[in-house]
Recover the amino acids of this structure.
């Protein structure tokens, strides 16, 4: 069931991507030198922005990649192109390989698309503290690297192609180990520590969130009230929620309805008329027959599954 | 239908020519009703006349048929063919009629006479399978019967010899040793032994009556040979004389058969039903070279030749159970000899019982089927006619039903009615066996003349008045207790309306001693010189209320060749004794005996216990004889101490040395013992927490309830929460808290979560202010999903107990449901809502209810906690801990206790665990949901079960390939069934679980009593593609502490951090979770939790080589074959392993790659 590695030679490029081999240094637990293949090309999103020319799109980013890693990779080993920022692909939804790529995790400092105004406010002020000192990225994930200018981006790509052609050794994580938080047990310890933030910080964050939330709430109610009371340009008044004072909750209404139905049922007893008794009996009989059919089907099914009934 | 059958039979019998032709062989016919049991030809005549005619009178006028049989062994072919044709036709017609009857009013028809349609249909099918058919085996057996009969009839009479002469002469002439029972006859015996042509020979038993079930084993046919009365004298019933003559007679038959058939048949002697008084001759087809008459694949059959005598040979009243028939040599008191008397009487009554049963079969149409059901039931429980396996077998079963159809009730009315269906007969008979204590008050059938005294020692009595015989004379007291127990269990099973008890009643084998008993004692048979009854009495008295059941399984007697002497019971044969313990009493260390004042009892007590008995004065002032045992945790269990002491005292040193007690190997596997005592500190801490929280006054809302929701708070965590010595880092136990309702909560999911944090902050502040011994801090969780719970309050006590408290706010559910239904929100928000709703229900509703139910069940069944923990250990040892949720394992284990059928609820961890595995190996999770009534008191009702079943079927229809839900585990507190199994385990994991359980059961079955408990927990690692060996110091915190204060370890930082901040720190599970998140689509990971410090993985088959694309969720190597067009993506296993190694850092000691 496990795919066996074939002996075909490694390709140097695929589609427009350059497949850049990164040497992985051996570790004590896995003393083996291997290569990781990072694919890169110019970023070509469907809706280009003004930053697009100076961006490079990476595929199959190592799980432990950080911005520092990539900065160092391009600056020290690929011709010194300077990176402005790195955007990693967010968490995937579900496990499927072809699953759509979800937008980046919330809580990133990265700029997000325009959303609801009120939420945006709350988002920014009421952040809960981070609990990881170093985020990991799902295996095979992508990232977009923005360089300082277009020339740098091109340089980076060119040097990558050249490195592939010349077969020069490029090592992953060369010289960055001291600049990023350590992995392994230390990282989990740090995580455990960060999981329990200082109560004051937490209180502050919650207070900020709640006040922003109530402010947003108030704004929303106000705007709704305004819409309700002021006719628009055409002289229409928009119908909005929350007009009446103390409206009944949806669930309560439903519960009341159920209650009413039940009362209806008990008003005339079920065995009052003769036809009711007759129908009831008929229904019972039908149930019995149906149950019998059902049982027979199940026995049939059992036989199909287990073979004949035989004592062990 | 019965009527038509009767008619048909008459019609058939009116053509005597044909039937005569088949006379002796007719017992092999296909048809249940019209096969004539082998009373020879004369039965035909009587059969047509006998309807309504009482058969009770003893007839022995069978002399006339012997010749006929010989003459008509080869019926003309056409007539047979015609008959077969007729039979098939009529059978078809009948089957059709039956079918239409079912089709039309089937549902109503079975309403009363069967448990349910499902049950009836299954029983029908079972009967169809086990009903005897006429096949090659049967034909071969019949052929042999004819041949044997011919030879026996031709055998020459042997003149009267003295014992010595007779023995020598037979040995010299034909090398047959006379199988005399012990004691051997005296050399100077006055009486003479002789052989004459048998008065008649018959086929009797279940084969003739068509009540033999079709089995894979050999077909057994009983053939009686009636010894002529002229051979016996009036007083021959005394002092084994009858049995000596019988043995000689049998030896003569053996000699004759040996001379005539030694090439065709193998002959062996055997004790009839293990009764050494009555040897019989067993004829089987010759094994090595097939004879030309027989078909090439030798049909397996055996014919038992049983000598018997006519019923009027000896007077009945001399052989009543209370009479003595073995005169003591000296002046000793003549004790009654019930077994001897009944054994002799049984020989006299053989034809009579044949008639009785045949009569029952012809008057009650369902009788045969009831016998078939009964025989299956007995077989699955390891019960049989042989004395060694209980002495209650097919014959006893059918005779009992036949007798109960005639009488036994008040005023001599029949207890059973002829109109009963087979199921009703079966169940009613079980009911009588279960309810009536026949050892206290014998069951009388027919006119019982005089008062028949009971057999002592608690053996049962079913007194057949007309025949003057105790049908159950062979049944041992312990078997009778067992039989009643089994009957009771089955009655309960059949009474269980919720679950189909068919499988438990007829299919499952129940006789494996490890599954059946809590402890099994094995001791060499040679040491128990006296009867097994003594052993039974000693153990029963000695163990008292510690055990519910003591069952003795003596070794089976062997068969032997006619030329050799009867084998003595071999030294290496072992007697097994099974114990079912009473978990409440079994570990009691002090036994109170009689007081010092009651002299007689005290003396008997002292005599029984010897120097172990001590006179002690107790706190309440009483002075009692007493026994002191050392507690179970110190080496041997109390049970073992007692058993060994008793054996040593009553059976000598050898018995004590040779005895081996199996049964507590499994409970020793559980860390800190199988008792619930280890959980007590945590439980107390929880109570303290509840008091503390309720005592807080400054909270904005008052507390409505506090509910535990963790395995540690339901006696079910595989590691006990707070160890005494060598304790490990405590894991916090989950608790939910609910406040009173308030309208001031925000109406937004994200805001609710933040409000909860505010509440927890307040709670934490107040709790620390009010109580000194508490540290509380807020922990964050679910960072990426802001509508899920965001924070919990971690409360640790100085004692070490720790809790995680989450706020349950019921408005969340409404909001989540609304979001799910809302047409305006996008699919990702909907999915988030679905996840949120599932989490809400799981954490706040199901988990507390489940915890409550399991905790209650644990206190009801003392062995449940241990069973759950051992089962969890088993799952973890096989690295399935991260796939099968704790709750599912708990449900699986609890099922063994609340639906124990076909056993009773287990009373020891071993039985509980092994039965759990047994069920697990047979659970067809593809087609059956697991439904457990955790209340144990019938809170789950029929409609609930229906609903669960329906929802299970809906799931299977929705997801037939089982990608999402594989196991379906519902309970009375969780009718949804997918709460704990949504998404995991995957199908391949569930398959592995079943395979492992099957392997474990095979091991149990194969090794039997030699089973090593640890063997079931060992699991090889070479099945996996790669193995991460985790630093073992991480899994057991205590190891680090004990060893040199941690200075020798590389993870020094840990020792520096003080203990309380590390509460709940579990780097391995964090690592595992992260690995699953990062590599989940390429690797299937297995972990053993704290049980085994390894994480193993299998590469997913989805990572096969494929064309390259951007969105592959695993690291790849781009490859291009020299001539290929496009680039292929191949999984980069080494790079992935290197990533894992980097991620794990110093936690991973070594990565082992198998593939």
């Amino acid at each position: 069931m496990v795919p066996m590695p074939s002996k075909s030679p490694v390709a140097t490029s695929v589609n427009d991507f350059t497949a850049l081999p990164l040497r992985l240094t051996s570790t004590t637990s896995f003393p083996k030198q291997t290569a990781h293949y990072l694919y890169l090309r110019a970023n070509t999103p469907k809706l280009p922005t003004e930053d697009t020319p100076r961006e490079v799109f990476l595929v199959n980013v190592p799980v432990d990649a950080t911005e520092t890693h990539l900065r160092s990779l391009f600056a020290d080993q690929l011709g010194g192109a300077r990176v402005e920022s790195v955007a990693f692909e967010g968490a995937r939804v579900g496990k499927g390989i072809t699953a759509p790529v979800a937008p980046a995790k919330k809580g990133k400092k990265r700029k997000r698309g325009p959303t609801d105004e009120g939420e945006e406010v709350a988002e920014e002020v009421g952040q809960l503290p981070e609990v990881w000192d170093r985020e990991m990225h799902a295996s095979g994930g992508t990232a977009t690297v923005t360089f300082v200018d277009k020339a740098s981006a091109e340089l980076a790509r060119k040097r990558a192609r050249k490195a592939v052609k010349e077969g020069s050794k490029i090592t992953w994580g060369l010289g960055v180990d001291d600049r990023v938080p350590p992995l392994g047990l230390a990282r989990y310890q740090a995580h455990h520590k960060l999981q329990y933030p200082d109560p004051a910080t937490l209180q502050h964050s919650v207070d900020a969130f709640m006040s922003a939330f109530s402010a947003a709430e108030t704004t929303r109610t106000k705007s709704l009230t305004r819409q309700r009371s002021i006719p628009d340009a055409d002289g229409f008044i928009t119908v909005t929620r929350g007009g009446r004072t103390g409206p009944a909750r949806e669930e309560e209404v439903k519960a009341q309805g159920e209650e009413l139905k039940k009362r209806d049922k008990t008003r005339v007893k079920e065995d009052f008329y003769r036809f009711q008794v007759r129908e009831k009996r008929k229904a019972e009989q039908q149930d019995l027959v149906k149950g019998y059919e059902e049982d027979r089907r199940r026995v049939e099914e059992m036989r199909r599954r287990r073979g004949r009934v035989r004592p062990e | 239908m019965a009527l038509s059958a009767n008619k048909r039979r008459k019609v058939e019998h009116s053509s005597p020519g044909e039937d005569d032709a088949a006379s002796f062989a007719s017992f092999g016919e296909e048809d249940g009703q019209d096969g004539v049991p082998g009373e020879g030809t004369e039965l035909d005549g009587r059969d047509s006349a006998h309807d309504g005619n009482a058969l009770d009178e003893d007839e022995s006028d069978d002399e006339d048929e012997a010749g006929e049989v010989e003459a008509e062994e080869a019926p003309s072919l056409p007539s047979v063919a015609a008959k077969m044709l007729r039979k098939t036709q009529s059978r078809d017609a009948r089957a059709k009629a039956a079918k239409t009857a079912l089709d039309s009013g089937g549902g109503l028809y079975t309403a009363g006479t069967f448990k349910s349609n499902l049950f009836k249909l299954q029983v029908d099918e079972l009967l169809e399978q086990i009903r005897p058919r006429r096949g090659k085996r049967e034909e071969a057996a019949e052929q042999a019967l004819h041949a044997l009969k011919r030879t026996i009839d031709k055998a020459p009479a042997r003149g009267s010899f003295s014992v010595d002469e007779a023995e020598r002469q037979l040995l010299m002439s034909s090398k047959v040793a006379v199988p005399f029972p012990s004691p051997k006859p005296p050399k100077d015996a006055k009486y003479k032994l002789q052989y004459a042509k048998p008065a008649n020979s018959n086929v009797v038993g279940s084969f003739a009556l068509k009540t033999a079930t079709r089995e894979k084993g050999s077909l057994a046919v009983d053939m009686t040979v009636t010894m002529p009365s002229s051979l016996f004298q009036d007083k021959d019933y005394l002092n084994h004389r009858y049995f000596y003559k019988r043995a000689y007679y049998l030896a003569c038959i053996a000699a004759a058969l040996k001379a005539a058939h030694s090439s065709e048949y193998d002959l062996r002697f055997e004790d009839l039903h293990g009764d050494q008084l009555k040897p019989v001759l067993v004829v089987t087809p010759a094994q090595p070279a097939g004879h030309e008459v027989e078909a090439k694949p030798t049909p397996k059959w055996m014919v038992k030749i049983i000598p018997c005598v006519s019923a009027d040979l000896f007077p009945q009243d001399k052989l009543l159970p209370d009479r003595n028939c073995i005169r003591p040599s000296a002046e000793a008191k003549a004790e009654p000899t019930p077994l001897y008397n009944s054994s002799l009487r049984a020989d006299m009554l053989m034809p009579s019982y044949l008639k009785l049963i045949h009569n029952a079969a012809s008057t009650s149409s369902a009788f045969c089927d009831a016998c078939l059901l009964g025989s299956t039931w007995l077989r699955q429980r390891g019960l049989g006619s042989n004395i060694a396996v209980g002495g209650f077998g097919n014959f006893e079963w059918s005779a009992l039903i036949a007798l109960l159809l005639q009488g036994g009730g008040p005023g001599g009315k029949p207890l059973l009615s002829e109109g009963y269906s087979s199921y009703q007969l079966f169940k009613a008979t079980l009911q009588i066996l279960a309810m009536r204590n026949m050892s206290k008050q014998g069951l009388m059938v027919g006119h019982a003349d005089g008062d028949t005294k009971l057999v002592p020692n608690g053996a049962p009595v079913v007194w057949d008045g007309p025949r003057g015989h105790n049908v159950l004379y062979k049944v041992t007291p312990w078997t009778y207790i067992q039989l009643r127990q089994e009957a009771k269990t089955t009655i309960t099973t059949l009474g269980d309306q919720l679950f189909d008890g068919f499988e438990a009643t007829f299919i499952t084998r129940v006789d494996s001693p490890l599954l059946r008993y809590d402890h099994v004692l094995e001791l060499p048979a040679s040491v128990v010189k006296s009867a097994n009854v003594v052993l039974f009495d000693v153990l029963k008295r000695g163990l008292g209320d510690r055990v519910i059941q003591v069952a003795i399984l003596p070794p089976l007697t062997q068969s032997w060749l006619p030329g050799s002497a009867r084998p003595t019971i071999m030294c290496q044969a072992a007697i097994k004794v099974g114990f079912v313990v009473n978990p409440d009493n079994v570990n009691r260390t002090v036994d109170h005996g009689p007081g010092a004042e009651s002299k007689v009892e005290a003396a008997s007590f002292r005599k029984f216990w010897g120097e172990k008995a001590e006179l002690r004065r107790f706190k309440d002032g009483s002075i009692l004889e007493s026994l002191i045992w050392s507690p179970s945790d110190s080496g041997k269990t109390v049970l073992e101490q007692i058993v060994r002491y008793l054996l040593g005292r009553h059976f000598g040193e050898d018995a004590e040395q040779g005895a081996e007690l199996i049964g507590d190997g499994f409970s020793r596997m559980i860390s800190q013992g199988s008792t619930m005592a280890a959980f007590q500190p945590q439980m107390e801490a929880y109570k303290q927490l509840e008091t503390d929280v309720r005592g807080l006054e400054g909270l904005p809302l008052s507390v409505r309830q506090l509910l535990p929701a963790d395995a540690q708070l339901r006696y079910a965590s595989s590691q006990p929460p707070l160890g005494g010595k060598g304790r490990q880092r405590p894991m916090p136990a989950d608790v939910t808290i609910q406040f009173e309702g308030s309208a001031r909560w925000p109406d937004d999911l994200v805001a609710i979560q933040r409000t909860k944090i505010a509440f927890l902050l307040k709670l934490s502040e107040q709790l620390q202010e009010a109580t000194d011994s508490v540290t509380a801090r807020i922990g964050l969780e679910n960072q990426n999903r802001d509508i899920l719970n965001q924070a919990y309050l971690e409360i640790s006590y100085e004692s070490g107990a720790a809790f995680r408290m989450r706020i349950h706010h019921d408005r969340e559910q409404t909001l989540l449901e609304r979001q799910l239904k809302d047409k305006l929100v996008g699919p990702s928000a909907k999915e988030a809502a679905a996840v949120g709703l599932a989490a809400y229900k799981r954490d706040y509703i199901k988990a507390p209810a489940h915890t409550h139910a399991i905790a209650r069940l644990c206190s009801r069944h003392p062995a449940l906690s241990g069973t759950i923990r051992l089962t969890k250990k088993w799952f973890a040892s096989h690295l399935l801990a991260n796939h099968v949720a704790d709750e599912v394992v708990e449900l699986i284990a609890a099922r063994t206790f609340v639906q124990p059928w076909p056993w009773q609820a287990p009373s020891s961890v071993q039985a509980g665990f092994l039965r759990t595995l047994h069920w697990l190996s047979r659970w067809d999770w593809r087609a059956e949901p697991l439904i457990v009534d955790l209340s144990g008191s019938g809170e789950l009702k029929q409609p609930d079960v229906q609903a669960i079943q329906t929802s299970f079927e809906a799931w299977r229809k929705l997801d037939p390939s089982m990608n999402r839900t594989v196991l379906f585990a519902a309970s009375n507190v969780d009718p949804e069934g997918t709460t704990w199994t949504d998404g995991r385990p995957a199908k391949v994991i569930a398959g592995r679980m079943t395979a492992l359980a099957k392997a474990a059961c095979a091991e149990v079955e194969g090794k039997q009593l030699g089973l090593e408990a640890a063997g079931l927990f060992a699991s090889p690692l070479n099945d996996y593609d790669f193995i991460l060996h985790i630093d073992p110091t991480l899994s057991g915190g205590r190891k680090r502490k004990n060893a040199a204060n941690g200075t020798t370890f590389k993870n020094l930082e840990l020792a520096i951090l003080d203990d309380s901040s590390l509460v709940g720190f579990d780097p391995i599970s964090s690592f595992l979770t992260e690995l699953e998140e990062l590599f989940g689509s390429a690797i299937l990971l297995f972990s053993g939790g704290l049980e085994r410090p390894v994480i193993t993985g299998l590469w997913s088959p989805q990572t096969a080589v494929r064309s390259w694309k951007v969105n592959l969720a695993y690291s790849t190597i781009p490859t291009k074959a020299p001539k290929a067009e496009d680039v292929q993506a191949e999984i980069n296993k080494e790079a992935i392993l290197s990533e894992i190694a980097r991620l794990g850092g110093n936690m991973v000691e070594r990565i082992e790659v198998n593939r």
